[in-house]
Amino acid sequence: MDISSEPLRDDENRFVDEIAALLAPWGFAPSVGRVYAYLLLRQTRVSVDEIAAALGISRAGAWSAARFLENFEHVRRFGSVGSKRALYAISDNYASPMREQTKLLGELGRLLQACAADTAAPEAAAPLAERARFLLALREAMNTAIDAVNERTREAV
Amino acid sequence: MDISSEPLRDDENRFVDEIAALLAPWGFAPSVGRVYAYLLLRQTRVSVDEIAAALGISRAGAWSAARFLENFEHVRRFGSVGSKRALYAISDNYASPMREQTKLLGELGRLLQACAADTAAPEAAAPLAERARFLLALREAMNTAIDAVNERTREAV
Fold first, then answer.
1. How far are the Cα atoms of A77, A99, A119 from residue A87, in angstroms, in the given order?
2. Which residues in A lie closer than 8 A to residue B33 (C-beta atoms)?
3. β-sheet bridge partners, residue B75
4. A60 burial type by CB count under 10 A (0-12 exposed, 13-18 middle, 19+ buried)
5. CA distance B42 to chain A (A)
6. Tell me, what DSSP letter sits at residue B9?
7. Is the ipTM of this complex over 0.90?
8. Residues pairing with A78 in the sheet
């Protein structure tokens, strides 16, 4: 299949640009944002060669972006990493990156609690402990929200 | 004041290292994570020179990390940017970075909705629209959670 014979249409390119611009301030390199957008658009398993051809980037760049996205569970890999035959698809487990984030809130909250108790100067302990309470309460609330949204999504299917 | 005469204690250094390690996978460069941790620990306004001396990094590195954190509203600046007299402190508006994130979820959800309606191939439209619904519902739920936690924090003060 001559995959390079199917370049993105203008409206597809616009979508890819918009997603990449939106995610750039969140630490997504431009190529990462573009690969994410392309996989959103396709909603199917595609090869690294296909990603590279569609977006006009190098194979190494496409592979590195896909791997970054895989690490954060935004995309799934089918096949061995680095293999010519490996395919990537956007993950349909929407909640997974969010769960990672609530985990971070929990770990941060616990570190701040311990710092307030053992390490911080007396005048810093109270605001640190208050921030820890906020983070831990927000984590609980977000987990509840993700559960509820997941539940509704499952019911709607 | 000879600020370099007050190096961090071992337990303070450990806290700084732990916070930096925790935040590294989230796109915080090591110096950014360390400056964030130091400002958490201090809970007061400090100069760029003081940050640099305490963490053993360059003034330019400390300033660039502080600016990154300021952009995401994790820290507040007091005084002109780049000025020798500018002071930085951890922001006490905990919710602000979270609000930025719910805003992102909303913008991403709306882009996916539009893509599903106008751009995506027929077989991609349904999963894209479903993902958009998840993002928008999660944004609402998170906003509600942040409001509730903020409200409790205010009442407890």
1. 6, 25, 48
2. none
3. B90
4. exposed
5. 6
6. P
7. no
8. A87
